[in-house]
């Protein structure tokens, strides 16, 4: 339960209604309970040989076996085409009747062409490209598949130096160093930069590679609340004043580590504020631009450009080539001294095989395009297209009444689901509608903040996005995740009930007595309640819960009226549908709970 | 600590009071102390006389008030002590005491007196401290002894065995592509075809549509080649073992490592936070003693059964020596440990079928629980893999950090590895591996006597002879003559330069990070490969080394010991 407990502590995302949280907790509790019972009755994991401890700790693998195991067909779906805007997803055997909880499912051989909302193909460099692919093939001839040696020990090729110079120029730093893997870029650079005696102030949502890097360096770590500058400043002040624990010596250095775009949130940190803080307190700043390089800023130069910050004010700019540039590997850019030190001491430079020349050539070609040196300005158009697509997607999803996180420009568009129980259903339903999107739950997010994550690409056309939006709207309606919809679902039930009550009160008030609140809203609500309370079931439920809605404050009722008025025609039309299909279990449970609390 | 003691004392005192109270309420003290004595004294007052006196004073209202008072407090009244005791009133007092005890017990802390407490820093003081604080630079200046010349850059790449460096075409003895499989046309063709079909990057981790059909194919092929149940591929070599170890060891578990293990293993051990024990490099006797000590210790402290793993390298990348795997296997079986072998430099070369050092040591597939290796070795590609039971691989798919949280291997590198693996599995591939093993043994034998001033690391015969990586350390006497590390590095660099420019042999000088806890000795590293296996090449390289070393290291006063070594 230790693992499970950690996730529940996180505060729910803003906007989740209390009953959503309550139901999500309840779903999880049922899953945990059933899982425990099953653990009691069946072993569910191989028995270790005598004298050996089990290979996996049964407590820590509980979540994997009993919760993830129920829906693990939603992940690791193999594909058999380039991860472009449309992708061939290989169908796999059914999850039913499998004895080993998390065993990979064998493909059946059938394929399904799906719209790809899962890959990090932000700029559309994933598939073969008329400009990049010939250059990659050229590099394969000129440098082989792999140098099979580390950069420091005879694996250095001219394409590496060219790449590093281009990256440094692109991000606006003095120098850069390229590595063969994005994860290793963090996990091998951070320990070189911060050893014992250093303090790392890390955002609560930083990626695992950062955690691994900091931990293997031996620096002390304090976590500040996600994007909370006041907490960051408080930590800075406290730790500078207090020094190291026990010895009370001053810290050798303080490194603030943030990401340019958080991969599960789509949010960017307030970089200008962080830079001013780090300057005021003499800390250093490490910015992980894995998801923001190429995607943020007018010309794709990352968060610095987006936030209007001089890149030289950021001490270490790290990024990867796996996302926007459709390649592999990562870079660290910064001052000459920092990069020279990394060249001398970074394990990924000294011990690991050098970046494959084909991958390096792909990045060089992509950067050339972005700088407008080839392809007739296609590169600049890609960034504009990406931002346009991201804006369009966000706007439409918000209009649908979904809880959408993230910055407008960010290509990562998370849609909150909250319920762990809905993840599998949503992912499978979307796949049936030929949309390959990613659902994310624990451990990538807290347990009660499960979400559907959509990655928008510059390669998506407007028709592609409309296709995806249609599918998402249908699935969201069935799953009931349109939490913010003014007149949808559960909210619609309450609204319908309130309106029915208001109409009844208005009718009674003609006699003269009471009903002030109902009378006040009678004009607006009464007309619509005719459709809302039309069905028998709806009006019956309405009367059962009218006692509590009647006591609701005037302010709440008013804001609801406002949002109802702002809703466009289609949501108005579907409000009746929402009221009619409110015999959904969740709605019943909730209505029952409300009635009981009265 | 002091607070706790105080709290405990307070609690004890209160407890004693409570006990005393309850005893007193029952025992003889009751009469003396409790309400009953009070009651008796009240009963003795002659109420009638008082009433009469009051009547005489004709103070009716007062008399009435007294009568009412007496109804309540007099004998039989509701507030008379007797009534109180009969109706168990002492329970209220005891309950109150209990409540006080509980409040004290759950108090967050006992506040010491004002004098001991430090005044918290004021905002102004914190401002002052923040202004005063001077951080160190983000990176220190590179220490003088760590300064090394720029590493060589390959100017022209012909194939993995022939390159042009610093304007000179040379035999490449740095690349770990032992068999030259990446030079095979089928490998290059596979890579090119995949680039055209799939593009370069995978654009996502394995979980999120980053699993390609070719990844599954490669995993299947690797498992079949190694004769194991399942394989799992990582996208980078140093991330492989550094992810595998933390997946199977955590805080309470035990890791036993060779002290010469390379950095990725050290990092994995550090990330796992397990209890790490090291044994003397390649010393099975020391390992046996260590395992015995650990077992005794665990039994003495009655620790619960935990996961225990021995981690070794098949061929040590820092020295080129081969681990005594047979002995280690026997010890692991005896003490019930799992065994993890890093086979990066032995996979594809050692063993009859090229399965690596474990096969060469006569171990069957399945006997070693976890085998990790790099694909930038014999497979001539990029990435890493791990083979083992399906349970081992399944668990990594959920808990291997470098697997779950990293973009997957570019598909073209996977198809290149598949094509290379296909060649490796054929009789031709096995013959090639045999030739490379032969060349390595020959090179070792030729260098066993040692070029002047250089010493071969590890044995030149026995099972170690097949190791394809040869390290030449400086002779300690020469090293002490040369003095500080920069001078040693410069001397070795001169040897390498002469080898390259005069003899056309490209060798590497390994460098080590400040993070590396092992601090291996500086050396010249030679990687045996298929091109070296050609007629006369080994002799050429050995004589080139001898001549270059004699020129650089055997100079001035060192001529005699150089000659002695030769």
Biggest β-sheet strands, sense, barrel of chain B: 7 strands, mixed
Assembly context of the chains: heterodimer
Q: If classified by CATH, what would the architecture of the domain at 185-425 in chain B be?
A: 3-Layer(aba) Sandwich
Q: Give the uncertain stretches of chain A in residue-range form.
A: 1-13, 506-598
Question: Any idea what the shape of chain B is?
Answer: elongated
CATH level-4 homologous superfamily of the domain at 185-425 in chain B:
Type I PLP-dependent aspartate aminotransferase-like (Major domain)
Query: Could you tell me the number of beta strands of chain A?
Result: 14
Can you give a write-up of this model?
Chain A: GO terms for molecular function: pyridoxal phosphate binding; serine C-palmitoyltransferase activity. The complex is a heterodimer of chains A (598) and B (566). With 598 residues, chain A is an alpha/beta fold. Chain A folds into three domains: 18-93 and 112-122 and 380-479, Aspartate Aminotransferase, domain 1 (Alpha-Beta Complex), CATH 3.90.1150; 132-370, Type I PLP-dependent aspartate aminotransferase-like (Major domain) (Aspartate Aminotransferase, domain 2); 493-597, no CATH class. Helices cover 48% and strands 13% of the residues of chain A. Chain A contains 23 helices and 14 strands. In chain A, the strands form three sheets. Chain A has a seven-stranded mixed beta sheet, sandwiched between helices. A three-stranded mixed beta sheet of chain A has the order 2-3-12. Chain A is globular and about 65 Å long. Among the domains of chain B are: 153-180 and 429-554, Aspartate Aminotransferase, domain 1 (Alpha-Beta Complex); 185-425, Type I PLP-dependent aspartate aminotransferase-like (Major domain) (Aspartate Aminotransferase, domain 2), CATH 3.40.640. Chain B contains 24 helices and 15 strands. Chain B has helices at 2-26, 29-33, 35-43, 47-56, 60-73, 81-86, 90-106, 123-132, 185-198, 206-210, 213-226, 237-248, 263-272, 284-301, 325-335, 357-360, 390-399, 401-404, 411-425, 427-448, 476-482, 485-503, 537-552, 559-565, and strands at 154-159, 162-165, 168-172, 211-212, 230-234, 254-258, 275-279, 308-313, 338-342, 370-374, 384-388, 454-456, 469-474, 505-506, 523-527. In chain B, the strands form three sheets. A seven-stranded mixed beta sheet of chain B has the order 5-11-10-9-8-6-7, sandwiched between helices. In chain B, strands 1-2-3-14 form a four-stranded mixed beta sheet, covered by helices on one side. The longest helix of chain B has 25 residues, at 2-26. Chain B starts with a helix and ends with a helix. In chain B, 47% of the residues are buried. The interface between A and B is large, with 128 and 117 residues.
């Amino acid at each position: 339960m230790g693992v499970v407990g950690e996730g529940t502590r996180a505060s729910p995302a803003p906007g989740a209604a209390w009953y959503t949280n309550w139901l999500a907790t309840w779903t999880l509790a049922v899953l945990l309970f059933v899982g425990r019972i099953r653990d009691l009755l069946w072993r569910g994991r191989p028995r270790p040989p005598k004298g050996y401890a089990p290979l996996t700790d049964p407590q820590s693998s509980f979540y994997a076996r009993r919760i993830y195991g129920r829906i693990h067909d939603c992940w690791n779906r193999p594909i058999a085409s380039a991860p472009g805007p449309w992708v061939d997803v290989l169908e796999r055997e059914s999850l039913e009747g499998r004895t080993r909880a998390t065993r990979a499912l064998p493909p059946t051989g059938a394929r399904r062409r799906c719209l790809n909302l899962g890959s990090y193909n932000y700029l559309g460099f994933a598939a073969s490209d008329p400009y990049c692919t010939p250059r990659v093939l050229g590099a394969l001839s000129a440098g082989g598949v792999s140098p099979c040696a580390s950069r420091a020990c005879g694996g250095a090729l001219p394409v590496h130096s060219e790449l590093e110079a281009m990256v440094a120029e692109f991000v606006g730093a003095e120098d850069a160093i390229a590595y063969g893997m994005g994860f290793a870029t963090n996990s091998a650079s951070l320990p070189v930069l911060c050893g014992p005696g250093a303090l790392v102030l890390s955002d609560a949502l930083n990626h695992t590679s950062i955690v691994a890097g900091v931990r293997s360096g031996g620096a002390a770590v304090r976590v500040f609340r996600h994007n909370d500058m006041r907490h960051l400043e408080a930590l800075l002040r406290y730790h500078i004043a207090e020094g190291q624990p026990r010895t009370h010596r001053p810290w050798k250095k303080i490194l603030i580590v943030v990401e340019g775009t958080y991969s599960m949130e789509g949010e960017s940190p307030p970089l200008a504020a962080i830079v001013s803080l780090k300057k005021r307190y003499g800390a250093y700043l490490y910015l992980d631009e894995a998801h923001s390089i190429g995607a943020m800023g007018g010309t794709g130069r990352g968060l610095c450009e987006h936030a209007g910050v001089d890149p030289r004010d950021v001490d270490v700019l790290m990024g990867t080539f796996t996302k926007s540039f459709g390649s592999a590997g990562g870079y660290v850019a910064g001052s000459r001294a920092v990069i020279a030190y990394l060249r001398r001491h970074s394990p990924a430079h000294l011990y690991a095989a050098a970046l494959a020349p084909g991958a390096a050539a792909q990045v060089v070609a992509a950067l050339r395009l972005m700088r407008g040196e080839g392809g007739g300005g296609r590169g600049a158009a890609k960034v504009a297209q990406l931002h346009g697509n991201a804006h369009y997607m966000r706007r439409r999803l918000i209009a649908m009444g979904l809880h959408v996180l993230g910055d407008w420009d960010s290509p990562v568009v998370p849609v909150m689901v909250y319920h762990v129980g809905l993840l599998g259903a949503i992912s499978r339903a979307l796949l049936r509608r030929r949309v390959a999107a990613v659902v994310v739950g624990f451990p990538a997010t807290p347990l009660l903040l499960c979400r559907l994550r959509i990655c928008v690409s510059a390669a998506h056309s407007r028709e592609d996005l409309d296709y995806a939006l249609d599918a998402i709207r249908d699935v969201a309606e069935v799953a009931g995740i349109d939490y913010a919809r003014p007149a949808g679902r559960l909210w619609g039930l309450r609204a319908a009930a309130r309106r029915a009550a208001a109409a009844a009160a208005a009718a009674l008030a003609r006699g003269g007595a009471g009903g002030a609140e109902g009378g006040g809203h009678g004009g607006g609500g009464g007309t619509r309640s005719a459709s809302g309370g039309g069905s028998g079931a709806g009006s019956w439920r309405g009367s059962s819960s009218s006692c509590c809605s009647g006591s609701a404050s005037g302010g709440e009722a008013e804001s609801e009226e406002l949002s109802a008025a702002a809703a466009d025609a289609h949501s108005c039309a579907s409000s009746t549908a929402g009221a009619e299909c409110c015999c959904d279990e969740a709605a019943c449970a909730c209505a029952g709970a409300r009635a009981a609390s009265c | 600590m002091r607070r706790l003691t105080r709290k405990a004392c307070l609690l004890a005192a209160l407890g004693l009071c409570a006990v005393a109270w309850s005893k007193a309420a029952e025992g003889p003290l009751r009469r003396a102390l409790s309400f009953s004595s009070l009651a008796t004294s009240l009963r003795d007052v002659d109420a009638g006389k008082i009433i009469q006196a009051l009547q005489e004073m004709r103070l009716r209202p007062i008399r009435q008030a007294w009568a009412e008072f007496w109804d309540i407090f007099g004998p039989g009244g509701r507030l008379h002590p007797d009534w109180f005791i009969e109706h168990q009133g002492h329970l209220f007092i005891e309950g109150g005491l209990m409540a006080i005890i509980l409040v004290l017990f759950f108090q967050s802390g006992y506040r010491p007196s004002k004098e001991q407490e430090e005044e918290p820093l004021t905002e102004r003081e914190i401002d002052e401290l923040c202004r005063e604080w001077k951080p160190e630079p983000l990176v220190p200046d590179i220490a003088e002894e760590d300064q090394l010349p720029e590493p060589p850059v390959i100017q022209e790449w012909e194939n993995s065995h022939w390159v042009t460096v610093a304007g000179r075409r040379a035999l490449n003895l740095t690349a770990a592509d032992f068999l030259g499989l990446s030079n095979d046309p089928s490998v290059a063709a596979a890579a090119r075809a995949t680039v055209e079909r799939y593009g370069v990057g995978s654009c996502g981790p394995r979980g999120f549509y980053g699993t390609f059909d070719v990844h599954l194919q490669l995993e299947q092929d690797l498992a079949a080649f190694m004769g194991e149940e399942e394989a799992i591929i990582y996208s980078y070599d140093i991330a492989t073992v550094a992810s595998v170890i933390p997946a199977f060891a955590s805080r309470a578990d035990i890791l036993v490592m060779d002290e010469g293990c390379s950095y990725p293993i050290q990092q994995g051990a550090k990330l796992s936070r397990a209890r790490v024990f090291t044994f003397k490099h390649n010393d099975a006797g020391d390992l046996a003693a260590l395992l015995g000590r650990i077992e005794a210790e665990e039994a003495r402290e009655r620790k619960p059964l935990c996961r225990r793993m021995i981690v070794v390298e098949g061929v040590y990348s820092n020295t080129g020596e081969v681990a005594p795997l047979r002995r280690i296997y026997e010890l692991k079986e005896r003490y019930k440990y799992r065994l993890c072998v890093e086979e990066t430099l032995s996979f594809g070369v050692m063993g009859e079928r090229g399965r690596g050092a474990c096969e060469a040591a006569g171990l069957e597939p399945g006997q070693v629980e976890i085998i990790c290796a790099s694909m930038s070795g014999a497979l001539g590609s990029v990435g890493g893999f791990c083979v083992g039971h399906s349970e081992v691989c399944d668990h990594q798919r959920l808990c291997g950090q470098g697997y779950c949280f990293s973009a997957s291997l570019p598909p073209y590198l996977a198809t290149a590895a598949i094509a290379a693996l296909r060649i490796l599995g054929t009789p031709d591939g096995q013959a090639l591996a045999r030739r490379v093993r032969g060349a390595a043994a020959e090179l070792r034998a030729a260098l066993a006597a040692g070029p002047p001033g250089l010493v071969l690391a590890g044995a030149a015969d026995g099972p170690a002879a097949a190791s394809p990586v040869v390290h030449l350390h400086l002779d300690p006497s020469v090293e002490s003559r040369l003095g500080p590390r920069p001078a040693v590095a410069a001397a070795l660099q001169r040897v390498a330069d002469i080898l390259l420019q005069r003899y056309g042999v490209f060798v590497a000088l390994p460098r080590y990070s400040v993070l590396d806890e092992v601090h291996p000795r500086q050396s010249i590293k030679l990687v045996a490969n298929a091109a070296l296996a050609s007629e006369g090449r080994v002799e050429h390289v050995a004589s080139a080394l001898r001549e270059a070393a004699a020129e650089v290291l055997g100079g001035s006063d060192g001529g005699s010991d150089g000659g002695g070594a030769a």
